[in-house]
Here is the input.
Amino acid sequence: MATVVLVTEPFERVARSSAIARGLSKLPIIVLPADFDEFDVAQIRAIVDERLGEVESALLRARV
Here is the structure.
């Protein structure tokens, strides 16, 4: 199953370490700004628009 992990900057190291420990070193991890949870709707939409291609590419690569 194609999977992409979304984390904020403070959790990137933990996410990557956890993936490696579970034998998933190639797991796509997309890192969002640390203060993402404080963004307003317009800021979130802008980031989604900006990063959607990255998410789609990671999901498609995982299916191969």
